[in-house]
Write a structure and sequence with these properties.
689 residues, Rossmann fold, Helix Hairpins, 3 domains, seven-stranded mixed sheet, two-stranded antiparallel sheet, elongated
Length: 689
Amino acid sequence: MAVSDLGKEYVFALAGNPNSGKTTLFNELTGSHYEVGNWAGVTVERKEGICKYVYHNHITHFDTHEHETEHKHDEAHNHIRIVDLPGIYSLSPNSAEEVITRDYILREKPDLILNIVDATNLERNLYLTTQLAEMDTPMVIALNMMDALEENGFSIDVEKLQKKLGIRIMPISASKGRGVQDLITECLNIASKKQLPLCPLTYGAKIENAVNEIQSEEGLNRLCSIKLIEHDIRLKSDIKSEKTTAVLEAVSKIIADIETYIAEKRYKFIKSITKECVSVIGENKQATRTRKIDSIVTHPILAIPVFIIIMFLIFQITFGAFGSMLSDFVDNLFNVQFAALVEKGLDAVGAGAFAKGLVIDGVIAGVGGVITFFPQIMLLFLFLSFLEDSGYMARTAFIMDKLFMKLGLSGKSFVPMIMGFGCSVPAIMSVRTLENERDRKLTLLLVPFMSCGAKMPVYAVFTAALFPEHAGIVTFSLYLIGIFLAIVSGLIFSRTVLKGDTPPFVLELPPYRMPTLKSTFHHMWEKAKDFAIRAGTVLLAASVIIWLLQNLDLRLHMVTDSRYSIIGMIGQLIAPLFKPCGFGNWQAAVSLISGFAAKEAVVSTMTILYGAGNSAGLVSSLSEVFTPLSAYAFLVFVLLYVPCVAAVSALSAELNSKKLTLFSICYQIGIAWIMSMLVFQIGSLFISL
């Protein structure tokens, strides 16, 4: 790298197929230094971050006797922005993701394309590579999963592959961080030299002559010229020269199906390269292992029972003795020891009763009532991240396809619904990846039935209070109820408000891999981060507001009995609505209202309203106010009623329909009330017999 280039800002566009390890590499390159948003004009996610790696320049000096006299290690702190382009298989304008990738490279002109290629699926991945190489932009290939390739019993001659493609190739293992520093160093070298790929792929003399003429007339790069020949509608409107139109017509007369012709040329070129560069060195252990595991987990009869058993074990561990032990530890640390420390500090500065009540009984008790269950939330997300990274979660979509076909959906819709177990907002946003508009809308209406992680503190505190011996079973049953009602609702919607044909189902099943601790914990934290942020923002604000409303009347005077406070009066007004459901007390009614802001707020509100002080006190209070039946009816209502404000906002944006959004809200509240009422009323009949 030239000295003048040191300290320059570079922009690298990260491009690759889905499941190639692109997200893993992006996370490895940027760490936590990235932002998430949407691409302009569309709802496709955009991620951009600052690379944490720096260029390493090793300089060695020699004296006249050719002995090494000094070894200097220098770091040039180049500012590198990494733009994570959507995962795509080609640059044909058949989807928003493909258009975004192509338009970004054409218009923004990044300094380099960093193309990540899955070494275990080389032939499929290189199709996109051949297109990217024609964009007249410096490019480096990150050949990922080289360790997995060897385990599969194959070997790639990287030097020969590099010569055949005319592109610099760097072998890496993104999940383990191997080769990433060398990759960035080489990317900076290629970008600083503005070294373009050699593009050895040709399409025959007639096509090549046409490409050269179009490039000359229109000033386009090679790929866009080829796309014009392939009748790309998005580019045809920008043709400036009549000569270009004549060239395109001439080519159409020579080759009728030009798009197929070009694709076949690409695949022929790729196959010839892989045949020369890929060799078998042993048994494909990964394929054998994948077949053995799939023979059980995707078995026509065993698949669903295996899935249920796996999820049941996860809930047993999360809400059983181990998860409860972790929560008790945090409860004691925050709600007892920290609260006592803060109280001593307030006494030392002479704080009054109002200030002490606000801080101790409002902020600490409210937020602490939720933070207590953070270890259990992290534990659940840890298991889900492991299943996702191992390749099992992709199988769940395959398993559910037959069932979802009856709903008028494909198995692809199950993936966003599974994501809903973590948080409804990203689950709702992920629905945009479905190709069909009707499928997207139908899936969006079903996602809120999935029990998000924010409801876990509510489940945890109620099961600890009323079902201490069966916490895992009770919680698991709630998740099953959510899935069951999503299926029933899907059947209703697909035959009424959203009629349509069942779309074809195509899904790539990644091979099973043992997730690395780094990758699993990173994904776990990404899922749990929203909970941590809300604990310090929404829940903190909600706790303060609830405490004030509980202690002040309409004249803003302090009250001794919460029933006469502002919130007590509101609660008593709406409490009769929930009497048929078994929880007609005003505290429960108010907590459900606060749950609209964030579902965790249900716990913090109850902690304040019952004057519990900490989660142990709340457990004791709930065991006196609720019966097991009324508690379960309450949990069913929490499970099913409308999600938090953030989720409703995301739902409205994705549905792009006020009527459907309002329908979803009313339907969720209505089904929640009906189901909790049925649970309580039918349960009461059985108890009285």
